Amino acid sequence: MNSQDWKSRWLAEGSNDCYGQNVKTTVDIPERELEDAIKFTKAKTKRAAIVGAITDFNRRMRMAELTRHAGTCTNLISP
Predict the structure, then answer these.
(1) What are the structural domain ranges in the chain?
(2) Across 1-79, where does the E strand assignment appear?
(3) In sequence order, what are the residues at sequence separation of 6 or more whose Cβ sits closer than 8 angstroms to the Cβ of residue 51?
(4) What's the rounded Cα separation, in Å, for the pair 47 and 38?
(5) Residue-level pLDDT at 38
(6) Which of 8, 16, 40, 55 is buried most deeply by CB count within 10 Å?
(7) Single pTM value for the model
(8) CB-based contact 45:10 (threshold 8 Å)
């Protein structure tokens, strides 16, 4: 999946998250940080900016977890 695919998924207004469920919550987000998130993601709504930031954060954490395990598999045949 290229970066444009996931961006278009969360930028679409009214779209569900990638798991098909929504969770409503109330959070106090500093206005400056939210404005920056909207600017950097080019989101049209606050919701899209927040969903995009969470999606990107989770993707980065999954990648970091995978890199921690890089080179640790002993079952692979190497030349």
Answers:
(1) 45-69
(2) none
(3) 10, 17
(4) 9
(5) 94
(6) 55
(7) 0.60
(8) no
